Amino acid sequence: MMADGLFPKRKPLTKEDIQRLRETLPKKVEIDSQGTKITGKDEEVTDVAPILESQSEEISVPLSAEEITAFQIYASMLKEKNKVMNLTAVDDDKGIAMKHFIDSLTICPYIREEEKRANSSKKLTFVDVGTGAGFPGLPVKISCPELSVTLMDSLEKRLKFLDEVIERLGLKDCTTVHSRAEDAGRNKKHRERYDIVTARAVAKLSVLAEYCLPLVKVGGVFLAMKAHSEEEEAEGAKAVALLGGTIEKTDTFKLPGTDMERTIIVVRKIRPTPARFPRKAGTPSKTPIV
Description:
The chain has helices spanning 15-24, 49-58, 65-82, 93-105, 108-118, 137-143, 156-169, 181-184, 205-212, 230-242, 283-286, and strands at residues 28-32, 35-39, 125-129, 148-153, 174-178, 194-200, 216-226, 245-254, 261-269. The protein is an alpha/beta fold. Helix 9 links the parallel strand 6 and strand 7 (216-226). Helix 3 (65-82) packs antiparallel against helix 7 (156-169). It starts with 14 loop residues before the first helix and ends with a helix.
């Protein structure tokens, strides 16, 4: 289950706050070659605010009015860009709010635990491997602005969209990196440089571990976001150990108000990853460590 008490209490949004958000937020986002323009005050609003307000409390990640505003703008930009570029199959307000935003935010309590564990004023470094349309990395950055966030993906077109979102929201210390995970894991700029590494992907744990653990500092953590994992955890244990990690805990829960099961596997990096890993691009998925 999700941890309780990891977040400072924030003033809950009232109905009046929600109405004010609806009235002041952009109704439509148009993206052109010069950047992002907010237009169309009479168009239908992208309305993820009520779901975020009600469901974020359920996962112990309360959101401020400013954060919900950022999510609203992000959702509008995502929907508009999705018309001309395949970013996500889920582009309705409820789907974006639950399957993208709330789902992404479920790792925030684990990040808060790492911040407490570090017991330092230094910013923790976080990388989202295979970020796609920005999940979970951008929602995490909106909710945890103190993190130094890197969004990594192999498709440059997706990263250009994310750069537009980052600029529009005014996010600081949030950057994109165009790279495959296997290449980044052999690059000294990224190898064992991050306190927290995550991936929200359909790949098996043994594959994700080879993508992600080479990027984690010794003492840092890899948070694997899975839909289900019982068999995968057993199958991936050898790969995790070989790559320098140990499975610290596994939490399984359902997204609030749904029957969608989610699992977060917490893998602690306890020793350096052997130099031969990760293997060359494409090999981990074709021949996983068993």
